[in-house]
Amino acid sequence: MKFLLLALTTLLASARSEDLHSLRYKTVEGAYSECWRLLQLSSRQIWQPCAPCENHCCATLLRLWNDADSSIRTPICPRFFHSKLESSKFLADADCCANRMLEQVPPKEKCRRTDGYYLCFNASGILQHDRKYFLPATELQQQRSVSECADFLQINSDDEWAQIFHRGLVSDPRGRCLIRCVLVRQQLYSEVLGVNERRVFVQSGNLRDEEHFRRGVRQCVQRLERTCSDRCTLAARIAAECLGQKLWSDIERAVKVVGKQRNGC
Fold first, then answer.
1. 34-51 b/e (C-beta count within 10 Å ≥ 16 → b)
2. Longest dimension (CA), the chain
3. 22 and 35 in contact (C-beta within 8 Å)?
4. Residue 47's pLDDT is what?
């Protein structure tokens, strides 16, 4: 099992690198198909039992697995299942089941943990295999978006990057336009449609109350729209003030990485 998990980790790292250039939408069925290829398994019917580490592979490709604490990002799991229960009740029941499972399965047994999560959510829901889902961007994809936006905005010189870092992303005019470009490129925001609240919620990680989050985003955006006069300032302040600390931190980190790679700032 240890060799299988090590091999799977290597294969998934390769798969995530390849995914850098693809659209961030995937079906559950498509994720399982990739896992059958990565694990060199023959395809199976939905009702047949999963192979070892198959669920862990799928959860990783769907960006549900959190390797830092060997757990699943449970708040966004309900969207992958159809259930007659209210979303909050469905999540609460699955969480309760998962907490009992986690007490019995150690963190190092990632595949068993993922199987346990699957059983907890499947107890009162049906996995939707053929629906396409928006996937949160990886660190590499965040950095790629920043790099492409820097090229588009012609932010090239050492002095330009140094000023952006010195002043701060929101305080520097080029920094503000860079943030706007990243949001637009990742399909999280546009002037025409505004903030895509559902995608931002998914990108934001383990937030639990989606309606509360979306309501807060709308109120924050409406406040800024009354005070910001140009589109780069508006987009940058929306990112910094309205979309949650995790997303903002991810963008800041990606900008720092790209800036250092390009100019040694």
1. bbbebbebeeeeeeeebb
2. 60
3. no
4. 54
* Residue 9 to residue 75: CA distance in whole angstroms: 24
Q: Flag whether pLDDT at 66 surpasses 60.
A: yes
Q: How far is CA 108 from the centre of its chain?
A: 23
The pLDDT confidence band at residue 19, using thresholds 50, 70 and 90, is very low
- How does 109-127 read in b/e, with b if 16+ C-beta sit within 10 Å? bbbbbbbbbbebbeeebeb
Query: What value does the mean pLDDT of the chain take?
Result: 85
Percentage of residues of the chain with pLDDT beyond 90: 54
pTM attached to this predicted model: 0.78
Distance between CA atoms of residues 19 and 14, nearest Å = 9
